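Tutorial handout. Part one gives the primary structure; part two gives the three-dimensional structure as tokens.
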Amino acid sequence: MAVDIRTLLLVQAMTLTLALAVMVILYVRYRSFRGPGWWVSGAAAAAVSLLLMLGRSAVPADWFAHLGGLAVIVSYSLFYNGMRQFSGYRVEPWLPLAALVLSLLSPLLVPVFEPAQARGIVLSVALGTLSVSTGLTLLRGRHRPGEFGRRFTCMIWLLNGVMMFGRTVLLISDPAMADTSGLQNGVGAVLMWSVLFCFAMAAGPVLMTTEQLADNLARRTRDLESEIEERQMIQQRLSDSEAQFRRLIEAAPFPVLILHPPRGTILYINRLAAALFRAGPAELLDRPVEAFHQHPAAARSFVAEVTERGLVLDQEMLARDAQGTTLVLLVSAVRLPFHGQDCIMACANDITARKQLEQALEQARDDAETALDVQKRAMSEQRNFLAMVSHEFRTPLSIISSSADSLAALHPEEESRLTRINRAVLRMQGLIDTCLAHEWLESATQARRSDRVEIVPLLQRLAEEVRALHPDRVLDLDLSALAEESRCPDGPVITGDATLLSVVFSNLVENAVKYSPAPAPIRLEAAVERDDILTLRVSDSGIGITPEERERIFEKFFRSTRTERTPGAGLGLYLARQIIGAHDGDISLENPASGTGTVFRVCLPLAAPVPAQA
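Part two.
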């Protein structure tokens, strides 16, 4: 059966139509791939060239020669750039442009070759160059060039380049090869190769696209596997973190609850929280926290506040346990994720006992204030009573004393009896002063007087009173050191209360008289020592004080075991220390030089001298 050129062109047309259809499908289905769009355009340009060949009888020869050649070069150029993009390279316009320019310069070869021969040579060189460039692009492509489809397509394009360059050699050596009117001169072989090349143009892209899909699928599979592995690792870390979080909550030394807003549903509770509410976890889980609150609206408000602010600290709440017992809780809460949910972790501190203690303390304070008010009223009444008693006693005592003095002048023979009367008066006056001093110390609001007290006259009056009360005792008052003191030319002066100071000195001297034998003298001496300090010493040679009792003699109501047979209340030395302390002074017990008896030392700051008036 004879095959003419038209039959081969029809076969080539069908093959090219198949290739065009395949490339359109690839372009429509895989728009994300770079390259199929260029392939479709290249196949369309090849179809235009083929249509020109089929209609060559209706087209002038020169038009066919130029238009057909340009269409084929455009087709190869589009395939070349499509393969570049598919292989991972950018579009290269210079080589296709050079091929087009070269085809337009074919008339320059007319002086050397026949016009048809010149056009054939230029077209073959241009197509061969584009074919080899396309094959090399596929060979060194960035996207895995060792795949079968890519190698197959690369081989087809390289073979096509070899065919084009071979045809160029034949055209140069034999001008008859430029005649394409029949199947002679190798035209049939070229058309047969064109049919195969069109088929390869359809098969190659399909293979490459399939392999690219497989590669993308494999890469996506690897990515998914990596992502799954990463998610599993994250899930494992999250699981480990939640397990650690649970252990921390269980080990927490305070009750902890995990709540889910908006109702505050209990999702988790540690053992201390379960013990606080006196219920098992199963009884508490999945229940709203307001069920254990005295005021459900306050519980809902608390959950809403934590949800909005993210953190709430030290808020008091009234709750109740499973048995209905009221609890006072100090709650702090924070928002955090738990099991993939936005939850609230609440930490509670049971302050019920503290609140009860505060209430008890408040009640005790109220009771104490009430008792204090009662005591203040009683003390006020006592002060008024003592003031009344002092006034009522001092007036008759003064009358008795003055009357006794008058009688002594009129009746000298009754002097001994009248002297006893004066002693009793002085004793009563001393007792009144002691009571008033004790009352002054017991009153926290009583203000201390700040008079300028001259010490020498005060001590001299004290000595006279003691000698009058105890004529059988010897009181040695030594003020010689004060007379020699240049810092006190007018005598030492103390700022304070003369009555209270008299009570102190009188108590010390009376104790010396009371606890020492009658023949033994009592010594009262005064001197100004360092830093303008007045020092008074009261010494006796009496029973003394044991070392064990020396630290306690200034305690209230304390009496030495050696003085049990001697009447007394144990207030004298206590009052002395309090009064001297109120005057910024100090009273202490010294070791006697003789080894027996007692020595009390009183230190008082001297008053600042009064500036002389001009």
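Part three, for discussion. The longest strand covers residues 326-338. The chain has a mean pLDDT of 76.
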